[in-house]
TrEMBL record:
One of its GO terms (biological process) is DNA-templated transcription. Residues 58-273 form the DOG1 domain. One of its GO terms (molecular function) is sequence-specific DNA binding. This is DOG1 domain-containing protein. Residues 1-31 are annotated as: Disordered. It comes from the Eukaryota. PROSITE patterns: DOG1.
Amino acid sequence: MRRPQSLPLLKQPGATFKNRGKALNHDESDKDEDFYSEIAPRITCMPIQKRQPYKRCEEYCGDEYGQWRMEQMKGAERLEKELKGRWSMEDLIDEQVKRFQAQYSSIPTKLIKDVAEVLMPKWAPPRELAALSWLGDWRPSAIPRLLHSLIHAGTLPESRAVKTVLPLLMEELRAEEAVIEEEMAEIQANCIFHLPLGMMRKKKGGVAALACVHTEFKKVHQVLIKAQNLRVKAMHVSVKKVVSPPTDAAQFLVAFARLQDLIHQHAMRHHLIHGPVSVLTA
């Protein structure tokens, strides 16, 4: 089949393709450019500035907000320090209470010499024992009574717990002290009236008589355990239940420790000056 003469072999060199391959000459393309330039708005280029460094909040929000923000941050820092101080104070209070509990919970062995050491400790001068000792240490009811004295003197504030819990605690401690004192009095009476006369006459040999003495000291040992537990209860309730703020509890513990040391130092000074206690006989 022969090609028609009217069809060109190649496309014209000046032609361009647009709209899916339709050939356009130079005149038509110029007309299109003029047409679109009349319709489209003129576009202007906008210069891009270099990014400015970050400015402080005061420059954007004003000096008043900046000053308020600084005061707020300072106040938050002070509160944080107070919180840390309160936590550390509570830790110190717990440590001090545990130290008293460890002292009062030190249950002696059942040996005669250990029980006698608890009743009459060697580190305490006689006048100190005579002043406040009850079965080897402070009377349990004296602990909340000291707290009551500090509140009455105005050193510690009076709270609702002081009015309700403190009187009940002192009444309960006195009742338990009376029970312990009755048990100890019964043991002492048994030692005085029965050991030298009755039991030692019935039992032949020193071994059996010594066994009776050990039996009575075991009873004393149980009484001392009750007394120590009662001291632990008095200290724990006074600090944890009666005195609520940590600062008041810390003041009470400091006053209690200083009073103990003051009485001990006074008794030791008197002992060094005047010597041991002597009783004049006719």
